[in-house]
Amino acid sequence: MNVRRNVKPRDLGDGPACLPLAVLFWSGAALIAFGPVLLLTLLSAAWAQPMAGLAAWARVAMFQVGTIAVLLTPVYFAPGIRRLARAARFALLGPPAAAIALAVLFCLYRTLP
Prior knowledge:
By secondary structure, the protein is an all-alpha fold. It has helices spanning about 20-45, 55-75, 80, 85-110.
């Protein structure tokens, strides 16, 4: 009986640097997506101004998140990427997520009131 056949293989790309890189890249993507909404909310609350302009920025943020989800979900479940460890997958998909969020922000900036 071959015992090694029943042992689960070690996750590929499970290095100590993967988790901090994933956190860094995805926090940058979240800052690009939700940063303007949070900044306008804080400034409106600080100066007691109406938050009428937030609706357009919130729509842009939701469009960014939706675009990231639609474009990166098939990549996340691709056979070559799926073999990697979870932290390595997130570290690998963080920079494209930030780039997509930035591209959507640049494209939709002119449509804001």
